[in-house]
Amino acid sequence: MRRFDVTSIMEPNNAMARRSVRIAQTGMTLSQLSMNVPFTDRVPYELLLRLQVTLRLSGGNAGDQLTHQIAESGVLFHCRLRDDLVVLKDVAEVLPYLNEPGGESGFTGAEIVGDAELMDAKRVASGYEHGAQNGFEPDGNLYVYNEVWTCTLALTLHRLFDNPRLKMAVFTPDNDDPLVVTPKQPREI
């Protein structure tokens, strides 16, 4: 094809562009949160999962379709991950593989509760695979474009314990008789 007396290079084919997103965990931090109720069978933790999100677009670029999808997807990812607060509602899930009933630690399981937040998103890499679009030579292969983001997913995890029931508490002041308190007969100090 000749336009303006310049030879143009035709795109590899008329294949439709495909889009896929892959999410991989790259790290984790677990920190105990402060407790409002001192006697409970649940201990709350903040679970921070570091994630790598990869957007992959591949296909032909007939009519600049792949180029348009790359631009639209890049803007969409930037707006959703960087500019908006992403809250995943009701991600509660029991984690069955963390159960050890009757274990010495008293730890009997774990569950994720509440909502999750996606934060600290950064684009770390973007570009074509295998040197596509780096030269002007015709190529019969499909184009493959990757955009890699990192982010953190914040969750609340409850560790579950079997606490024995309180039967009695004994307070021994320095110069006084011991004071015994049972749940059925509370006494004021």
Structural account:
The chain is mainly β. The chain has one domain (2-164). The chain contains one helix and ten strands. The protein has one helix at residues 65-83, and strands at residues 2-3, 6-7, 18-32, 42-59, 86-88, 93-95, 107-128, 143-161, 169-171, 179-181. The strands form three sheets. Strands 3, 4, 5, 6, 7 and 8 form a six-stranded antiparallel sheet that branches. Strands 1-2 form a two-stranded antiparallel ribbon. The chain is rod-shaped. Mean pLDDT is 76; it is low at 6-14.
Summarize the structure.
The chain is mainly beta and 189 residues long. Helices cover 10% and strands 48% of the residues.
Low-confidence stretches: 6-14
How many β-strands, per DSSP?
10
Number of domains: 1
Quaternary state of this entry equals: single chain
Distance between the termini: 96 Å
- Class derived from helix and strand content: mainly beta
The proportion of residues forming helix, as a percent range, comes to: 10-25%
- Report mean pLDDT, rounded to a whole number: 76
Can you summarize the main beta sheet?
6 strands, antiparallel
Please trace the helix and strand order, writing H or E for each element: EEEEHEEEEEE
Number of helices: 1
Task: Give the radius of gyration.
Answer: 29 Å
β-strand amount = over 45%
Overall shape: rod-shaped
Labels describing this entry:
6-stranded antiparallel sheet, 10 strands, mainly beta, two-stranded antiparallel sheet, 48% strand, 189 residues, rod-shaped
Helix-strand blueprint:
Blueprint lengths: L1 E2 L2 E2 L10 E15 L9 E18 L5 H19 L2 E3 L4 E3 L11 E22 L14 E19 L7 E3 L7 E3 L8
Antiparallel strand pairs: 1-2, 3-4, 4-8, 5-7, 6-7, 7-8, 9-10
